[in-house]
Amino acid sequence: MKDTMLTKFGKAFVPETLFGKPIRTKLRSYLLTAGYNYVPYSLFGILFFVAAVITYFIFVPFVSPLLQDKFFVFVFFFSFIAWAFIQLIVLAFIIISVTFFINIQIYRRTNEIEAQLADFLVLVSTNLKGGLSLEGALWAGIRPEFGLLAEEMTIVSKRVMTGNDLSEALDEFIEKYNSPTLKRNLGLIVGEIHSGGKVVTVIDKVIQSLKKTKALREEMSAATVSYMIFIGVVVVVISPALFALAFQLLTIIIGFTQSLGSSLSGVGNMSMPINFDVEIDVNNFKKFSVMALSTIGICSSMIISIIEKGDIRGGLKYIPAFTIASVALYFLFSVLLNSVFGGMI
Prior knowledge:
Elements: H1 2-11, E1 17-18, E2 21-22, H2 23-33, H3 41-62, H4 72-129, H5 134-140, H6 148-161, H7 166-176, H8 180-195, H9 199-223, H10 225-265, H11 282-308, H12 318-341
């Protein structure tokens, strides 16, 4: 009963159409690409209640104190607007986070299919040369080691067996994933099916093209290893060391000026043209250093991803490693430098 209510509640936030465009149909296709066979409307309902709870814990400590001793009508309207605004921001953050996670799933699935496509087409070509039809060659080429590609080809073969045209089934598979590799190479095969030519010849050329493309990508990735190592050393070692050194330098300057100011204050009523009162909190600099290193780690991960993979999404695995390593080394360098320069303060 609870699942049914949550499902109905979640569907209320996802209309069938919006401005004449089918929303639920596109949402289902989008989730199918990520590997989800159904739309989790109940999850949408749960996320709405989660957003409401988060809004409550933000509204009570930060907004409620501002409404003390205010006119009733003002409190009512301001509370309504503030609650709606906060919850919209929370919902937007949740939607962006979920969409980001789903896009990463789609990216990984697409890469997995592209990596197995050449080996699968080799088996299809061999089966065609052995006398099988194209439909039979596709079915016979399915192997468990092809993983996700085997699952997708199984769906294509089942659609053909139930009466659908092979070219239409392949077109649906091509449109399912936003992959230029699939669209370009499988599109050539579909075009050859429509023209009635020698499909096996086109498949062999597609296999050669895929293997050459893979070799070129590996060569380009190997040629950029030095740049990736340089960026990694700068982010993980040099940047934390410089921030730690700057922190120690700031601490020494503050300690020196405070000592100098206190010593001059005991000399008498001497008027000094320089004010030695330094109002800088070293803890704020430490917080700034951690935030700056985290930002540098995220941006450098994206740069390395673009150099290595040609796509930002491929470098997300570097973000935790770079961020944690750079911040940890920052505190380690701070301790070491403090032990070296501690006597100067």
